[in-house]
Target: Rod shape-determining protein MreD
Amino acid sequence: MQNSDILLNIGRFAILVILQILLFNHINFMGYINPYPYILFILIFPFTGNKSLLIILGFFLGLCVDIFSDSGGVHAAASVFIAYLRPLLLKFSFGVSYEFNTIKLNKADVGARLTYISAAVLLHHLVLFAMEIFNTSHIMLVLKSTLFSSIFTIVVLFCITLLFSRKN
Model:
């Protein structure tokens, strides 16, 4: 990575954590619908970047949110999980384009982009809420929270990516 890429990623990291802490942590619809758009950092990290670095950054991203949310490490665990699975999600969503490193997320097909973001968000939220509730007798609450928070997060992520995508 070049110096400009490093500064851009540091800025994304800081802005997403600050927005999550100051704005999105205070949104709570019907007691169980919360957006978690901080995972956008993991999703748009350069595809040719170091995968081990992404896992470490995913841990620190989740840890920052955990510290300010007093959530005991569940965000760190869920963030590391999707950072680890990101190559599989990219291959599943983009297929051959990922193999040849020709993916540009803002120029990708809407269906492939939706598949990638949705799969990552659903997996993140499933791990997050399963670890947060951690009780098999409340499996319906885990699934309900995962589904509705995922839908809300996907909508927020699409709005953010559309708002900040560069037009050519």
